[in-house]
Design a protein that fits this description.
Elements: E1 5-9, E2 14-18, E3 24-27, H1 31-44, E4 57-62, H2 66-81, E5 85-90, E6 93-98, E7 101-106, H3 114-118, E8 127-130, H4 135-145, E9 151-154, H5 171-186, E10 190-199, H6 220-230, E11 241-252, E12 255-268, E13 284-286, H7 298-302, H8 306-317
Parallel strand pairs: 3-4, 8-9, 8-10
Antiparallel strand pairs: 1-2, 2-4, 5-6, 6-7, 10-11, 11-12, 12-13
Protein name: dITP/XTP pyrophosphatase
Subunit structure: Homodimer.
Binding site for substrate: 132-137, 195, 278-281, 301, 306-307
Length: 321
């Protein structure tokens, strides 16, 4: 237990502190100073009312600057207890760090304009990078992650990133390749998906090759025609069962990736129908509805599709991950 007294004094500010005993604050400058110290500093100093060796007593005689007062208290605490707090100013706010950890952001009572605090940064808050350049898919993910307070961006914001080849033989392998490679290159949380159609009568094909089922230069039209050809001798509707599959992988450098997957069951029709969607949607009959995926509007599809089902699973486990 130290008996050392600390003091700071200039024309506008005058503080005295003793770094032991129970946490105690007194001020000639009103409740604002008392509340600021009590609210912002007590927690980061790990004050324990049962352990007076880690306490502090601060007396504020004159006060004009929250930055000077916070710096005084923390510099004194560093000296008395061997801590390593650093206090700096950033665009009108006071930042407190300890080692590699940001411990406190203290704002003026009236707050700060967001643009002033953020500077040239356009987006505030954490973001998740979606490993796609498809804006439609990005918007679908954005709608889900907004519920958790995360922003969403995609690879269009990073034109210099290399394309990641999907050389895996499973949906998870391909999604991992994209998510983990881009996470390592950018240092960001990255979400990648690999999706496709699995047809039971074809042993799970086209599977991971769904987008290129008809060979080089594949298009949706050619892929659909090839699928109809492959099933031309399968006449029973029940035998034409299929599932749209989605695997999602969330990756972050230094952390085990999070993997979820989901299936959207249905059947393959004998002809194409519907004006919405893409890929195999005109051939996919949603189980128990009789409607093609291409007959569903965006809101209907996003409430029940394989990607929607996988995202719902992801939202259940993401907060603890």
């Amino acid at each position: 237990m130290t008996e050392k007294i600390y003091e700071y004094k200039d024309d506008q500010d005058w503080y005295v502190a003793k770094l032991d005993g129970f946490p105690y604050i007194s001020s000639f400058s009103g409740d604002e100073v008392f509340d600021m110290i009590r609210r912002d500093l007590t927690d980061i100093l790990d004050c324990d009312y049962e352990n007076p060796d880690q306490g502090f007593q601060v007396h504020v005689i004159r006060y004009s600057s929250s930055f000077k007062l916070i710096k005084f208290v923390l510099d004194s605490f560093n000296d008395a207890h061997g801590r390593h707090f650093q206090v700096s100013q950033h665009r009108g706010a006071t930042l407190v760090t300890e080692g590699e950890q940001l411990r406190l952001v203290h704002l003026p009572k009236e707050g700060l304009p967001l643009k002033e605090f953020m500077g040239q940064t356009e987006q505030f808050g954490d973001t998740i990078l979606i490993a796609t350049r498809n804006e439609g898919k990005t918007n679908e993910f954005r709608a889900f992650f907004q519920k958790l307070g995360y922003g969403v961006e995609n690879l269009n914001a990073y034109p210099d990133l290399p394309e990641v080849e999907e050389t895996g033989t499973t949906f998870e392998e391909n999604a991992r390749l994209k998510a983990e490679t881009i996470a390592q290159l950018t240092g960001k949380i990255v979400l990648a998906d690999d999706s496709g159609l699995k047809v039971d009568a074809l042993g799970g094909l086209p599977g991971v090759w769904s987008a290129r089922f008809s060979g080089p230069g594949a298009t949706d039209e050619r892929n659909n025609q090839k699928l109809l050809h492959e099933l031309s001798v399968v006449f029973d509707q029940e035998a034409r069962s299929a599932q749209f599959h989605c695997t999602l992988v969330l990756a972050k450098p230094g952390k085990e990736s999070l993997v979820v997957e989901a299936d959207w069951p249905g059947f393959i029709a004998y002809d194409m129908k519907g004006e919405h969607g893409f890929g195999y949607d005109p051939l996919f009959i949603v189980a128990d509805t009789g409607r093609r995926a291409a007959e569903l509007n965006t809101e209907e599809k996003n409430s029940q599709s394989h990607r929607a089902l996988a995202l719902k699973k992801l939202l259940e486990v993401f907060p603890t991950w």
